[in-house]
Design goal:
By secondary structure, the chain is of the alpha+beta class. It has helices at residues 26-41, 126-139, 150-165; strands spanning 46-48, 58-61, 71-90, 100-113, 119-125. Bound molecules: nickel (II) ion. Nickel (II) ion binds next to helix 2.
Amino acid sequence: MAILPILKYPDPRLRNKAKEVQTVNKKTQSLIDDMFETMIDAKGIGLAATQVDVHKRVIVMDLSEDRSDPRIFINPSIEVLDETTQPYDEGCLSIPGVYETVERPNHVMITATDRNGDIFNEEATGLLAVCIQHEIDHLEGILFIDYLSKLKKSIIIKKLSKLKSNTAIL
Ligand code: NI
């Protein structure tokens, strides 16, 4: 297992569109293991392969406090079951220090492939619904700040560039 470097905004590779996984094999499983290790090390609750510069449709997640509920979604898709949206404060390992409210549908059906290559369905509400939509967006090259107003986004970009110029890399 290995901790992989996480791409940080505005890295253009975060805009790549990920490709479908054709077969779940040893390579996929070792990617999944590395992604879990990377996500836990970075104290995240979800991670898309795009964020570690692997442009395949793989997502890992653990929404539990004690890291006891690992979830894997390969080639995930969602169907919105209820168009009602809920506001949620989102952050992202690729945009450290930025938290903003995003509205997303609060009830979706997930279809994905698991670690063994089997397809499954899972109905999702609340945090799971938010997280799967945030991570699927990554696979499409979309970031949560893309949903904010132009003004809000420009303030964040300014704040991030300021942060960068004041940071000493030692
Ligand atoms: Ni993210």
